[in-house]
Each structure stands twice: as structure tokens, then as C-alpha cells.
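User: Hey, quick favor. My workstation is busy. Could you predict this chain's structure for me?
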Amino acid sequence: MIQRSLGPRTVSAIGLGGMPMSIEGRPDVERSTATIHAALDAGVTLIDTADAYHLHAGEVGHNEDLIASALRSYGGDTSSVLVATKGGHLRPGDGSWTQDGRPEYLKAAAKASAKRLGVEAIGLYQFHRPDPKVPYVDSVGAIRDLLDEGVIQLAGISNAWVEQIDLANQVLGGRLVSVQNQFSPAHRASLPELRHCAELGIAFLPWSPLGGIRNAAALGNRHHAFATIAAAHGVSPHQVTLAWELKLAPIVIPIPGASRPASIEDSAKAVELVLTEDEFAALNAT
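Assistant: No problem, here it is.
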């Protein structure tokens, strides 16, 4: 597996998004565990989660618990695995999402996440989504305090604009290592943030890089250039999509979600796919 830098850490160029294993349509624990183990077998060393990745109100941290359990039961070495989690975005259990960016909440949430993950310090903790009721500098200031106190090892933000990236990096004293925004063939609004991260040397982690749970299966039908190039290489449109994203900049680390071993095994192979410049140009133009 090709490696990429995430701050001082080196991780696999393709990560695993854990969200599909804990929300609507979630698989059973055995299949989820098998999916995480398959990712590790494929060389994936970055696993993304959040305390809000759950379905019902009373199961906050479901995905964190699932990942922690799967790592414990894995037969191989997991010392190089970086688990990234997030706080500040809440799922009350009625299908809606809310935000809570209060510093006191974020600090308590991070400590609860560390306990669920079974670690003394969270590898990467990201502010999940800006809270319009709380000044952004106050929320990121809580992340800075967690970093200074050793509750977390690395700090990131999610769902951020260019201005917020610069502000967060300033508040963190230049220690911002990641930005996790939505990005896919169908959603390219975060391209300015991707390019800004490339200029700053900050890792950019596209979430829903294949278009999201409901759209990933139809990716080739929705974006014909990706399907055409996939057919020419004898691979899936999903591999072409991830290879395209990797080629956009060396700071890009896609985190495709998966709920089946075959899905993450296919995604991991994207690092081996070499796109020609003509193919890359065609995908950019789509």
C-alpha cells in the first residue's frame, strides 16, 4: 500500500470510513468486523470514525466501539494504525443532525471517545462541523487545549472553508494536520479547500469520496467518463474515482466507507491504478 503523510504520521493512501457500519442498513457485527480486518489485511492504516456514527439516540459512539473491538480481535500488528475520530456533530436518533461546538462539550466528548477507543490519547481528533452558535475560534481552541493536554496526538477539522482552515491553523499554532471535507465526482465544491491544503502541506481527507452510501453503486452510470476509463483498465469505476482523487494532490487521502470486505478490498487496489494524463484530464473535465 502506498503511504502518505498526515502530519508527523505516515498512513496508507486509502483509508477506511467506518460510518456505513453503524447507521441505516448497518451490517451485523461479524460482517463489520470482517470488513475492518479485510482493510487491515489490505494494508489500510487509517480508519475514520466519529462519536456521531450511530443510529439510535442511546448508542453514541457505536462505531468507535466497533472499531476498537475489531482492532483488539485482529490477529496481526495494529501498532501502525491511526484511528481518527471526530466530535461536535450529534445525531439525536431521529434521523437529524445537530451541532455542539461548545469547548466544554468538545473536551468531554474527546475524553469519552478516548475511553471507547481504549487509548490514552486519540491518534487524530477532528472538530466535526462548525456550530453557528459558538465562535469558531472557541471551538478550535478546545481542540488546541486537548492537544496541549495530551488527550489527543494530532488535530484536524472537518467541513471547513478556506478561511476556517487558516483560522484553525492559527489557533492551533500551525499544528493543523488534516481537513476532512466532502469531495467526489458529484461534489467538487471543496476543490478550493483541497488546493489550499496542498499549498499548506495539510492532509485533505475526502469524505464520501465515491458519492455517498446511496450513490456509490451507481457511480459509473452517473459519471460516464469514470465508467469508460474503468472498462479500459478492467477495474471498477470506484477504483478509477479514488485513483483520480489521489492524483489531484499528494496530500489527498480518500476515506471510502465500506460495510463489506469486498468493498474495501476493491478500494485499496486504487493505489495501484496509474491514470494517463489524458485520462486524468478527461476526469477533471467531467
